[in-house]
Amino acid sequence: MTSVVEDKLAMVAPSVLGAMSDKNSNNYSAIWPAILQLVKTCPRSWAHVNVHKVVLPRMCSCLRAAAYGSWAVTYPAVLPWVSTLPRSMVVSKLAVDICNALWFPIATGAVPSAVYQLIATAWAECAAHLISSANAATESDLRGLSDADLAKWASLPTTAKPDGKPTPEQV
Predict the structure, then answer these.
(1) Which one of 13, 57, 113, 126 counts the least CB within 10 Å of its CB?
(2) Is the confidence at residue 40, as pLDDT, over 70?
């Protein structure tokens, strides 16, 4: 089965990785497993999409829109998705955009307080992973970052607790 998908990856990858624009929350229980299976099974799928023009804007729109209500499915899937991104993509504006988009529903009060824990956990996990990935980057990987990107990254909110989970006062 994998070889069939590999043969058609140029056609399959944009359709699957671009599915995050669906606004029907019921569909995300099928969308996330498809996305995660594709990127884990066929890591080359990232080469067949324009991450910065298609995938990232759709992902960030989804996250800013509180996952279109698919909280229980989407927020736990963000870290597995982020962890499949090629390192060259992680040390760019993408990391800042994902963290900002994750936090947006809390900052704007767009979600019920019962969802804050899911979002805060996803944010903390992704921020830790992205920072860890950026710290592991070589000097040549960092050359593409502008001073503005570095300033945005430095301005992201941090958590005070050592386990990375925000306190109720922070949420």
Answers:
(1) 113
(2) yes
